[in-house]
# Entry
Amino acid sequence: MYGRVRINLASEPFRRDRPALVAYAAATALLAALLVALISLAAAERGRAAATSGAVERLRAELRAITAEQARLEGALRRPENAEVIEYSRFLNGLLHRKGISWTRIFDDLEKVMPHNVRLFAVRPQVNPQNEVYLDMVVGAESGPPVVEMLKRLEDSPQFGNTYIHSTQPPSPSEPLLRYRVTVNYAQELE
# Structure
């Protein structure tokens, strides 16, 4: 009853490597699949980048063509024989812009803020380059306080804004009222 002694006389001892080799083969297959996926994604991205750069180049060519056409047209417009047409066009555009201002609304809004003892002699709506409307008015009163009251009401009204007095005219034999030339911002939207 002696114990058994195991002796391996083989030149290479037996090892249980099969599970490790299977795990290595599976990891290699997974890494190879990932490599193929990454290569295909890179190729697809390269194709999209080429398509995008081609589209950008086409758009740049269109922009160059449009810019050249605009320069050609502006050159034609700057010729002396076309200056009269341009001025007439600007005049018509100004008329159309002014036509968008409602006179009825102007007088309704002014009626709400004008004191009873201030007289409106003239009102001329203007449009500045920022498409803001302002009114150039000539008003008259027997004294200054009613005009000051009108200016306060204009500035407090949501329809009007800042007011500026440009000039004052004293009474004359033909006109017994003090006259003031006033400019006020007006919040009417152009139609």
Remarks:
- The helical segments are 18-77, 83-99, 103-113, 144-156.
